[in-house]
Amino acid sequence: MKKFSKIAALSMALALTLGMTVCANESPDAYKELLATAQATADNTKAVDSSGKEVNLTKTAATVDDIKKTDTDVQSPTSALSQTVASAAGADVAKVTEVKLLVMMDITPDPAASGVITVTIPYQVTPAAGKSFVLMHQRGTVWERAKGASYDAAKGEFTFKGTVGVDFSNYAVFEVTEDTTPTPEQTPQQPTQQPTQQTETPVSPKTGETVPVAVFAAVILLAGAAVCAKKAQMNH
Asked: Which of 12, 118, 135, 193 pairs as cysteine with 149 (C-beta 3.0–4.6 A)?
């Protein structure tokens, strides 16, 4: 009975430990850094209308649930979202090894504004070989490259354009890493040549080539000898 009680107590302790671990991983603290970065970036995000007049924005870090889901959806480089982000970044999808969520915010312009506005997000990224960065917009459940998105390396700013009342919700910056290892070039195999057999061809005298006089003399002598022998037989 005591042995059973000890086993039960250990099992309960283990279950409690695992439960606390799961809760900790799912708590906001697990995404504390992403939340802090998003809020600091949102605080300095600005927008202007087509005339250059500043537009008021409601800008906050995206919700924990949205950040968690997006971060989870890009854990695999072959996931649907990773492939969408990589394609939007202009990367070679087949060579992508990692897609990483860097910052995610919820941006909404003042309803009093109208038309197309330009939004500037101050977020510094470091370009490097095999790495590309892209600003994406979440429209409902669909992610797409933000309209007119560009990055000014000198200022460390992303900019994009959006229509008030249509294009605003969650925006996120992603980092895409590609494998830049060069593929070895394959040398084409040369066909094996079979050895050519040499055959001797009798050489005929060339046209106009002079036959030696000695040959003619020998032929005439042989002919004369044959005639003389024949006459001698007839006389006997």
From this structure: 135
pTM of the model: 0.67
Measured CA distances, 194 to 173, 190, 191 (Å): 62, 12, 9
Helices 80-88, 64-73: axis angle to 10 degrees equals 90
> CA 118, CA 108: separation in Å to the nearest integer?
12
- Nearest by Cα to 167 from 155, 149, 193: 149
For residue 113, what are the CA distances in angstroms to 9, 65, 107, 162?
Answer: 63, 29, 14, 12
Spatial neighbors of 108 by CB under 8 A, at least 6 apart, are 57, 58, 59, 168, 169
pLDDT values of the chain reduced to their tens digit, one per residue, 236 residues = 544 455 545 455 444 444 444 444 445 566 888 899 999 999 999 999 999 999 999 999 999 999 999 999 999 999 999 999 999 999 999 999 999 999 999 999 998 888 999 999 999 999 899 999 999 999 999 999 999 999 999 999 999 999 998 889 999 999 999 998 877 765 556 666 665 555 555 555 555 545 455 555 555 556 555 555 555 555 55
